[in-house]
Amino acid sequence: MKSDIEIAQEAVLEPIVNVAAGIGATDDDIELYGKYKCKLSSEYLENLKDRPDGKLILVTAINPTPAGEGKTTTTVGLGQAMAKIGKNAIIALREPSLGPCFGIKGGAAGGGMAQVVPMEELNLHFTGDFHAITSANNLLAAAIDNHIHQGNELNIDLRQIIWKRCLDMNDRALRNIVVGMGNKADGFVREDHFVITVASEIMAILCLATDMKDLKKRLGRIIVAYNLNGDPVTASDLKVVGSMAALLKDAIKPNLIQTLEHTPAIVHGGPFANIAHGCNSVIATKTALKLADYCITEAGFGADLGAEKFLDIKCRAAGLKPDAIVLVATIRALKYNGGIPKDKLGTPDLDALKRGIVNLEKHIDNLMGYGVPVVVTLNAFVTDSSEETEFVKQFCESKGADFALSEVWEKGGEGGVELAKKVTDVIDTKQSNFAPIYDLDLPIKDKIEAVARKIYGADGVNFDSNALKNMEKLEFLGFGNLPVCMAKTQYSLSDDPTLLGRPEGFNIRVRDMYVSAGAGFIVVLTGDIMTMPGLPKVPAAYSIDVDDNGKITGLF
């Protein structure tokens, strides 16, 4: 059986100019990054604004497990399948982060016969967007320390600098550091921190901005510190907004690539869903809606994280309304939730499936709570028994969700025809009455509790003293009307990664919170979640190599 990277490397790609021509973009409308990827120009995007929008389909999943779920694979396969049934669809995805690529997760291009390509370039440096974000983030960090060194005219309190440096790599040693050591000319000594680039507020800003003007406005609102009087100090105060925007002038333009079957895919931005808002850029999604009858997009990790943030943050900020939600599960992952070890998941076990399906049940209930029609799809494995598949189908239909089997990993678009027909039928016959699960005018505490109780199934929320102190401060400063971005483990509905299935009788612990004023949300840190991941004992980097001819191996 060929690996994902072998399938991708053997694929015959269309020149990206041909893919662009298929969406009405001429040579003047695109900026080439080699033969198989390009950016869409700002002028081209501006000319699309008066077009009507297509239908918006969100793909999400149950909580991730070591067994794999195949959310991106399903998203790509569904886009390919739409073409098989004569529908005009474009896929809108996030860009992968180097951290998990070399850590434990591997790449994020889909899998099998449902991939976006060029796979290696996408998973590595792509068009340099993440490098630009990293540079803009660290320019702002450098400006802070330089301002203090040059006399600190803004009276920045060195104890209340909240802006962190960033790096797009899992590096636990950089979580907590000391800067400014050495001679007097090396700056003031203070504690500092790193986050991974995909957790930087600049990543979130890029993905929520509508154009360059909006981007600069949001950059200027970033709160980097507080002064000795307790007032916010912003990026605008430090006079580097223009320079940051200059670094991001190309990164704000969406990237166009293709699937193995040449379906257009707009891939842009990539905030993590466990520690950020987990969605691709508003610009990419809105562009896809203008270019096709169906825009198929995904949100990171399980529906308790990425989908919740897509629906409560991104849709609200961008005025989007999903017409249908596809919820991805696998029988293997459901049995893992039922207590079966990873090496036993290929053996039919209906009892374990019945125990583990409660995780799927909770996600169905959650998504239906938003008023959007839900289609559950099983990403099929050859080890699945017909009895197990039929049980899941009947269970989903008993919960009021539609069901379709997906075989896109093995068969590409042809394997997603059943799913594509089901999704389009649901859109045609069922009304979406989308509404977020909380009102923005609620107090911050109530919004957090709404997510914890309604989405996670918690009994309540325990707030550490530091979280309560910062909550009071944020409301005093006028940020109480922002949505909340919950930073939580992806492995469980709770904040404890070991609690699988559908946990009950637990509280969510909120240990801290801070405002991302430019992005427009409050980040709420729960449990032991880290904004800078670490590498595992045996990272994926150990298996990645390149031969003398430049051929990469080991990416997956």
Can you tell me about this structure?
The chain is of the alpha/beta class and 556 residues long. The strands form 6 sheets. Strands 1, 2, 3, 4, 5, 6, 14, 15, 16, 17, 18 and 19 form a 12-stranded mixed beta sheet that branches.
Helix content: 25-40%
What are the low-pLDDT stretches, counting only 5+ consecutive residues below 50? none
Mean pLDDT: 95
The counted number of beta strands is 25
Strand content: 15-25%
Span of the ends, CA to CA: 14 Å
Described by strand count, sense and barrel closure, the largest sheet is: 12 strands, mixed
Please work out how many helical segments DSSP would assign. Answer: 19
* Structure class: alpha/beta
Shape: globular
Radius of gyration: 23 Å
